[in-house]
Amino acid sequence: MDRVVNFSAGPSAMPLEVLMRAQSELVDTNHAGMSVMEMSHRSKAFEDILENTKHLLKKVMSIPENYKILFLQGGASLQFSMIPLNLLQKDHEAAYIITGSWSQKALKEAKKVGQTTVIATSEETQFRNIPDFSQITHKENLSYVHITGNNTIEGTRFTTLPKTDAPIINDWSSGILSEEINVSDYGVIYAGAQKNLGPSGVTVVIIRDDLIGHAPDNLPTMLDYKTHEKSDSLYNTPPTFGIYMIGLMLEWIDSLGGLKEIEKRNREKASLLYEAIDQSSLFYSPVNKEDRSLMNIPFKTDSEETDKAFIEFAASKQLVELKGHRSVGGMRASMYNAMPIEHVERLCSAIREFEEKVK
Amino acid sequence: MDRVVNFSAGPSAMPLEVLMRAQSELVDTNHAGMSVMEMSHRSKAFEDILENTKHLLKKVMSIPENYKILFLQGGASLQFSMIPLNLLQKDHEAAYIITGSWSQKALKEAKKVGQTTVIATSEETQFRNIPDFSQITHKENLSYVHITGNNTIEGTRFTTLPKTDAPIINDWSSGILSEEINVSDYGVIYAGAQKNLGPSGVTVVIIRDDLIGHAPDNLPTMLDYKTHEKSDSLYNTPPTFGIYMIGLMLEWIDSLGGLKEIEKRNREKASLLYEAIDQSSLFYSPVNKEDRSLMNIPFKTDSEETDKAFIEFAASKQLVELKGHRSVGGMRASMYNAMPIEHVERLCSAIREFEEKVK
Ligand SMILES: Cc1ncc(COP(=O)(O)O)c(C=O)c1O
Ligand SMILES: Cc1ncc(COP(=O)(O)O)c(C=O)c1O
Ligand SMILES: [Mg+2]
Ligand SMILES: [Mg+2]
Ligand SMILES: [Mg+2]
Ligand SMILES: [Mg+2]
User: Fold this and answer.
1) Mean pLDDT throughout A240-253?
2) ipTM
3) Which of A57, A244, A275, B203 is the most exposed place for a label (fewest CB within 10 A)?
4) Could you tell me which residues are beta bridge partners of residue A207?
């Protein structure tokens, strides 16, 4: 079948070049006489792959020396627990800014571990905006402040950060590698790989080294960041193929000019679609303008039936996975790095064409 | 480069047919117009893959209706914790049979959770045999009895099971799919995928349904078997590519005639190598004859230097990854399903040739 245009929120479209490269060496990777999937994780051949992936991530994200890169399993969902289990100190609180279902889930897991406090939430607007957190009274004894930097479901994104002495923890699952950020603004950045990084099954954790090593003794070994830092992500068998694929994705980003160029493209792509939505009298964006995500763009009409008809219309043009998350309804276009502007243009045309048709 | 003969203990050799099949559809899987890596885990296309993999595992292992199949992350190492966290009841003990480093690690994690008891160990023989557990006095209030069905490092394997009313938990990482077993003899069978199942990054858990749902309320959601059972392994984003690869591996096994035929081949392969080792006056097997593994075969000479020379000699014939685990030394040949008997014959020839040479 011809390649479809895939607006899935994750797992999501990958660059055709990257897929073809992986395909070409799937049976014999790096001339090792075996597939990357067959390599012992303790072999030189795989260690080179791991080092290369780490090196490229450091380069592309300009990660400072005092941060460690860990490749873990369990998805961002397991980080919801690992963060408080490792970082929430006795007689301290963990602060959360609640901007959608993912932050709610993160908070729920932290509550099982210790004291939490919500310092801002946009629940009352159904998460259509990033709440104001500028007036946060200075809190004592905060172990950290947790944010969801890009809200995959609600289509919002942080453009400023809370002023706090506590380390900021960023669930950056759907934002990572989409724009330049200053890593040293954060204590921990974590992300499930299945958007801009690679296939599902790898979780990347970028952690400031002073935050490692404070877990309680009875914590399961696998949940302690120290375990993975000490062994360079090789305590047990890591998801080797996923780490290899992340390396290929990063080489591709690097070859395009890095995150500066990627961010420029992503801003152009997002502007194009927001413009088409804003100009339309049929479709609208539910999201507050200043807080709009570059990656995940929900839009709607006033009728569920019309939404459904549009999704079918788009699918007939090979534009697929446009159904919005069930908690929001309508449509959602996720446009990660792999999506070229031409594909966004096709969606914009479909929007205009559909509006003409139903007028 | 030509394909090497890969004796790695895991990740390990995969069937060339399977790799070539995966390669042929890496960019467009099942005519979906996208790679399996790009499919939303909530899409019909991926659900078909998940169902197919589950269906084939059920068929190949003859898994009874009252068992659930879960595809998780974190490797067998995370199961070392999930088992006691889910199954070790208050005022009960978890019993362990200690047959090597993996069972020791499993026990260590259980001790963090609750009361444990070691009902047999072969530590005093450096794990060269499976200890006698026939005289186990009937214990009350056991939540389970944990065994390591095949000991990847030490090269031993269970051929009988303890007589107990408690559910038997089997770390079957390096034994799964290598021989027929009676699933209903066990409460839980778990395995990291990276030997006979597929690539690393997926953990398969086969669990009797009455054992699900007894976890304490404050357990992280991701560590509760109930979470994954309720959502059919789709609570969060599963390792989609790995699940797909396991499906291809199972199709291959099924096409060969299933586990009956696979076990026959594995017995032939193992006999061949044990014979060559036993007949040699230079090499010997450190393992008690009755307890010898079909998958992982350690062997040695009396000199570390000679071991090293043999490993180099073998490598010059493209027989690679023969270095024994550092805790055992010498050599280890892991011969999972993907290894044809011809490759074992090449190792046997190398053994004889080397012995001639150094005589
Ligand atoms: C912002 C965010 N956080 C967390 C998750 C959960 O990630 P995972 O499925 O890897 O557990 C997602 C998944 O899409 C997400 O978008
Ligand atoms: C018997 C056994 N148990 C546990 C493990 C650890 O598995 P993982 O690396 O998936 O955590 C291994 C790894 O090879 C093993 O052979
Ligand atoms: Mg969200
Ligand atoms: Mg509009
Ligand atoms: Mg062992
Ligand atoms: Mg001998």
Assistant:
1) 98
2) 0.98
3) A275
4) A68, A188
Collapse the DSSP code of B246 into the 3-class scheme (helix H, G, I; strand E, B; otherwise coil) and give the result: helix
Query: What is the CATH topology of the domain spanning B17-255?
Result: Aspartate Aminotransferase; domain 2 (3.40.640)
For A326, which residue in chain B has the nearest alpha carbon?
A: B42
* Structure tokens belonging to residue B70: 């879960």
Determine if ligand 1 sits within 6 Å of the CB of residue A79: no
| Structure-block tokens of residue B260 | 């009956």
Model pLDDT, residue B267: 98
Q: What is the pLDDT of residues B226-284, one digit of tens each?
A: 999 999 999 999 999 999 999 999 999 999 999 999 999 999 999 999 999 999 999 99
Question: Does residue B208 have a pLDDT over 80?
Answer: yes
The architecture that CATH gives domain A16-255 is 3-Layer(aba) Sandwich (3.40)
Q: CATH assignment of B5-15+258-358, given 3.40.50.10050, 3.40.50.300, 3.30.465.10, 3.90.1150.10?
A: 3.90.1150.10
Closest listed residue to residue A50, CA positions, set A259, A239, A255: A239
Nearest to A35 among B14, B43, B238 (CB): B14
- CB of B20 within 8 Å of a chain A CB? The answer is yes
Residues with Cβ within 8 Å of residue A191, at least 6 apart in sequence = A76, A171, A172, A173, A174, A175, A176, A197, A203, A204
Please give the CATH number for the structural domain made up of A258-358: 3.90.1150.10
CB-nearest partner of B240 from A32, A33, A199: A199
